[in-house]
Prior knowledge:
This protein is α/β, with parallel strands linked by helices. The protein is 29% helix and 17% strand. Strand 4, helix 2 and strand 5 (92-97) form a beta-alpha-beta unit. It starts with a strand and ends with a helix.
Amino acid sequence: MLVDTFGRTATDLRVSLTDRCNLRCSYCMPPEGLDWLPKPELLTDDEVVRLVGLAVQKLGVTEVRYTGGEPLLRRGLSDIVRRTAELAPRPRISLTTNGIGLDRLAGPLAEAGLDRVNVSLDTLDRDTFKRLAHRDRLDDVLAGLEAARAAGLEPVKINAVLMRGVNDHEAVPLLRFALDHGYRLRFIEQMPLDAQHGWTRRDMITADEILDRLSAGFDLAPDAEHERGSAPAESFVVDGGPSTVGVIGSVTRPFCGACDRVRLTADGQVRNCLFATEESDLRGAMRGGATDDELVERWRAAVRAKRAGHGIDDPSFLQPSRPMSAIGG
């Protein structure tokens, strides 16, 4: 198992398949984009499947989430999903995406073995979408959501980040949209993971503020029926149920003590936390001829070093040098 010195066991593996993205969301990267990783530095499809296989078959991982950048840009995505689904024991397989291209790929991915998707959608207004993402692709995202539901990739979850003075007035419309279409909405506090290093706590919409905005249009109550466990989102019952909305307060309501996640970057680095400043290289060892047992022990050693928390409130906190697009969500 992947156990750290605080007794937490990592069973949820987030695997970034690319650092590239076809949007330029302002809380992630600048409008001109970033310098992408050279292709030789990226894990090949076979290398991804090998490491995921070790995680599932030798290290106790039960859920694999493919992320990016934008994972739908990875040419071999469907085959990677298919080979992951063939592992024994079979992990639960999910995908975090911006939804562009999902209208074409939802069916093939479902057939390959994908179980569900999380789609990022921060606004329902076309002009606001263009302002946030620097691309006019709102219709593509909405089409992707519908295609995911039609393909049976349920529950279809929506991730939304509220930005002060940009889309923070859309909390109620976003939740109403999700309820009307049968999607599960989760609001996420903006985190210090932008490439520009422009994040400030003062400008961030907090979990408390999100709940205040939602309470203007809905009656919310803590979801006492379902235990939160290691889930990042606090769940609230909407208007008496059965529908719920989630709020992920990564900054103001950290859940580090129950964290069960570990991350593998597109270039083969193990990261114990989104905000970690250290990485452990599996790609170099693998390409240098390391055996499966040697890779497993490297992975265990990396997780043993996991810190107690992300430390955002600590005066010594330093934002990671890698932005979210390079780490994987």
